[in-house]
Amino acid sequence: MKLSTKFISFIVIIHLVAVGLSLYIFQKEPLFFIASEVFILLSLFIAWQLYNEMIQPLNLLMTGVEAIKDRDFNVKFLKTGKYEMDRLIEIYNQMIDQLRTERTRQEEQHFFLEKLIHTSPTGILMMDFDENITAINPKAQAMLSIQADAVLHSALSSIEHPVLQALSHLKTGESRTINFNGLETYKCQKAHFMDRGFPRYFIMLEELTTEILAAEKNAYGKVIRMMAHEVNNSVGAVNSILDTTISLEQNQPDVTEALQVARDRNENLNQFMRRFADVVRLPIPHKEPLNISDLVMKTASLMSSVAKRQQIRFEFNFSDNDVIIAADVSQMEQVLINVIKNAIESIENDGTITFETTHQPPQLLVIDTGKGIQKGIEEQLFSPFFSTKRNGQGVGLTLIREILVNHGFGLSLHTEHEGKTVFRVRF
């Protein structure tokens, strides 16, 4: 029962009792009875006035409470001239002003934080109390090549992505460097903040690939330039002596042949060093519009004779929409030639190489049915001078990496299962 109802009931009962008593006591004295009734009516009037003065602050308070409940901090009250009411109104108005100021400050901070996260050059994943992803900023989506809709409200461990799988094992406050596909390197850190008394976790991803590759290239570039300088100086001088010696008429045929073999070997050494130097001297890409499907068809036609000799078939699965990129045509052609060559060498005989493009996201996949990549070496594939071939120099994949990284494209190479190895370029 409401307080107002209780008060009215009490007043009514009291005055009914008073009327009954006055009738019983003064029924033989009409003047006293009339006087008592006037007094009772006056009491009712005063009680009604007191009721209004008592209930008005409560109604005012309830109106304010409803406004706060609806998060409307613009409702303020005017003073009435009554001390108690004015004191209550003054306190309420001060409280509303403070709440409005705090709410404005909180919203400004919230919008600033959202803007900061959205434009941050660091990838950020926000999680709820149960460690399900609630937000992922554009940088993290670009770094991991995933769409927000595909991962929101999901636990890290439930998402089939190697980097997210690794992140699911991070502990709060822990920082770790993760290498993905032997090429992409991320510095990951997990932390938390308190929200309504419970910890909420977030993970920051910083891509170190570019910095690591630049430092790596600077290191092996110095070695290659020094080796090339020494080899070129030595080969040039030795070839000059050999040319002079070969031209002498008194040479025996077997001596001349041996000298020619030595000169040819020197030339091979020179070509060998030139291949390494090409990686260091790779020019800046001259970008122009390029249709990936056209490039694939052109390069596949160029390599078709080699594939046919080994009974290897080419299959094409292009998206309905053409994938148009800005790239250096000759450099991208060199990438594709090396990829196809590696796929042919992996298959050896009788297999299939499938070229596939997707428009959203824009990417190219080269899938072969070869023997695949041995476990334990996937992380070393793009390391300079690393090769699994008996006479390999480890230049092909390094050149591919340099060209694609210079273009700003992502790449990966891994065996999904036996008979399916995928080279992926993300534009």
UniProtKB/TrEMBL annotation:
Spans through the membrane: 7-26, 32-51
Domain HAMP residues, every copy: 52-104
Catalytic activity: ATP + protein L-histidine = ADP + protein N-phospho-L-histidine
Keyword Transmembrane: yes
Keyword Signal set for record: no
Localization of this protein: Membrane
Protein name stated in the entry: histidine kinase
Source species of the chain: Runella salmonicolor
